[in-house]
From TrEMBL:
Belongs to the copper transporter (Ctr) (TC 1.A.56) family. SLC31A subfamily. It is a multi-pass membrane protein. Its main location: membrane. Keywords: Copper, Copper transport, Ion transport, Membrane, Transmembrane, Transmembrane helix, Transport. The chain crosses the membrane at residues 24-44, 86-106, 112-128. It is found in: Membrane. The gene is LOC107495521. GO terms for molecular function: copper ion transmembrane transporter activity. This is Copper transport protein.
Length: 148
C-alpha cells in the first residue's frame, strides 16, 4: 500500500520494488544515498553552468584555431563550441534524470527521505553553487526544484 500522506518510519520503498528498507541500518543507508545523490545533483548543475559560462566567453582572435603541435591538427572555434554544446546537453540530460528520480523518491511520502533530499540539496548548494558566478549566466539562476 502506497502512502498518500507524509509518514515517519523505517519501512519505505524507494523508486523500485527491490529497494525496500526493513531495518534501521538499511533505512539510514538509503537516506545517506538520497543525501549524496542530491548533493551530486548540485555538483553537476555547477559543472553545467561553468561549461556554459566558458562557452559564452569570446575567444581572442589569436586563438580562433587551436593547434595541437604533435599531431598538426587544428580545431576551429566552431567545433569547440559544438563540442561544448554537446557536453552541456549530455550534462543537462543526466541532471534532469537525477532531478526527476529525486522527485520520485520524495513522492514515497517518507519524512526521512524528504529531509535527506532537502538537506542534500542544501549541502550541495553550499559546497558547489553558492558562488557569485551565477549572476553572469543570464536566465540560469537558483531553482528551488531539483527537477527544474
Amino acid at each position: 500500500m502506497m502512502h498518500m500522506t507524509l509518514y515517519w518510519g523505517k519501512k519505505v520503498t524507494l523508486l523500485f520494488d527491490s529497494w525496500k528498507t526493513e531495518s534501521w541500518l538499511s533505512y539510514s543507508m538509503s537516506l545517506l544515498a538520497c543525501l549524496v545523490v542530491a548533493a551530486l545533483y548540485q555538483y553537476l548543475e555547477n559543472r553545467r553552468i561553468r561549461l556554459r559560462l566558458a562557452g559564452e566567453r569570446r575567444l581572442p582572435p589569436v586563438a580562433a584555431a587551436i593547434q595541437t603541435p604533435l599531431m598538426g591538427w587544428k580545431i576551429s572555434s566552431d567545433k569547440a563550441k559544438l563540442g561544448g554544446k554537446l557536453i552541456g546537453s549530455v550534462l543537462f540530460g543526466v541532471n534532469s534524470g537525477i532531478g526527476y528520480l529525486l522527485m520520485l523518491a520524495i513522492m514515497s511520502f517518507n519524512g526521512g527521505v524528504f529531509v535527506a533530499i532537502v538537506l542534500g540539496l542544501s549541502i550541495g548548494y553550499l559546497l558547489f553553487r553558492s558562488e557569485v558566478f551565477e549572476d553572469d549566466v543570464g536566465g540560469v539562476g537558483d531553482r528551488t526544484c531539483a527537477c527544474a
